[in-house]
Design brief:
alpha/beta, 8-stranded mixed β-sheet, 11 helices, about 325 residues, globular, 8 strands
Length: about 325
């Protein structure tokens, strides 16, 4: 009889220990998961065009659209990753860019079509209302989205961007005037001769290496970085992009004039209709001159303006801590 009682007690004890171990393991797993940020990636069929996205983080949705046009979301990483601790980040590659579908008909690369792509991703991922952050050309796209789908936004963040192509072209004229005569003459000569069709067959559908070095490596560089230049920046490697898209939207006549279909971007007189909380940021040495951001700030009632010190176009590289703090303070 005593043996049976001891056996029952032993079984109960072992069961308790076993349960306790399972419970501890479950708690440990749960604690561990709080420190894990898994990436969900995939494609959204946006009206027949496959748009690549990556999603990670915890909190309210913050969608981020890149510049170029024709770059990809990659250049935001790793700089914007800290935002994932408080927000669900959704990065997309715009149509024709990065890992998204490339189109045979380049005329389908328009701001208007990309607005619909953003909306398709928002719906497909069931994000509800979102914060939309756009950098450079992505800021143009974000403005266009807000002007059409403002009801789907909680906040708007416009980074180092412009509301008017004609004004941006004026900035480029002044930028050229400030160059050394030697650099300006070199760039003007290459632009006059035509920037495409040179070199070997595999080189003909992009800028020449000499032009990329002169335009991006010398002409643009002081407006890209100030405080913390990316030591890995390479103007020739910067040419790995979607050239058919770039030429359709930016144009084929060089870096210092926008004469592709982006020349239709003139939003200044519509900005007053944006009524959602809006943050506008730029660098004090930005390629998109601070005067453009100041104008957007004046036109969008109640907006906030942050101009980062010692910063070029890549504000989140030059001043990463200040950039993250500005976004988090605004969203809080």
């Amino acid at each position: 009889m005593k043996k049976i009682i001891y056996l029952i007690i032993a079984i109960c004890f072992l069961s308790k220990v076993s349960f306790s171990q399972k419970e501890t393991k479950t708690i440990a797993t749960k604690t561990s998961n709080n420190n894990v940020y898994k990436i969900q990636q995939g494609f959204v069929d946006a009206n027949g065009v496959m748009i690549y996205y990556e999603e990670f983080g915890k909190g309210k949705p913050l969608m981020i659209v890149h510049g170029g046009p024709g770059a990809s979301h990659d250049y935001f990483l790793p700089y914007l990753i800290p935002l994932a601790k408080k927000y669900k980040l959704i990065f997309i590659d715009e149509r024709g860019s990065g890992q998204s579908e490339k189109l045979e008909d380049a005329s389908q690369y328009t701001v208007e079509n990309m607005v619909e792509d953003v909306e398709s991703v928002r719906k497909a991922l069931d994000l509800g209302k979102i914060t939309l952050l756009g950098h450079s050309y992505g800021g143009v796209l974000a403005q266009a989205y807000a002007l059409k789908y403002q009801k789907n936004l909680t906040h708007l963040i416009l980074c180092s961007t412009f509301p008017s192509t004609s004004q941006m072209n004026e900035v480029f004229v002044k930028m050229k005037e400030k160059m050394s005569p030697e650099l300006r003459d070199k760039i003007n000569k290459m632009e006059k001769e035509g920037l495409f069709g040179h070199g070997k067959d595999y080189e003909k559908n992009r800028y020449t290496n000499d032009y990329m070095i002169a335009a991006w490596g010398e002409g643009y560089f002081p407006y890209l970085y100030q405080n913390h230049p990316d030591p890995n920046y390479d103007p020739v490697a910067n040419g790995i992009m979607s050239w058919d898209l770039y030429r359709e939207m930016w144009g084929s006549d060089g870096e210092f004039i926008i004469d592709g279909n982006l020349k239709s971007v003139e939003y200044v007189n519509q900005l007053h209709t944006i009524k959602i909380p809006t943050l506008i940021t730029c660098g004090d040495h930005d390629e998109c001159d601070p005067s453009l951001s100041k104008e957007m700030h004046e036109k969008i009632s109640g907006s906030e303006l942050v101009i980062f010190p010692k910063s070029g176009h890549m504000t989140f590289v030059d001043q990463p801590n200040l950039f993250i703090k500005a976004v988090e303070d605004f969203l809080h």
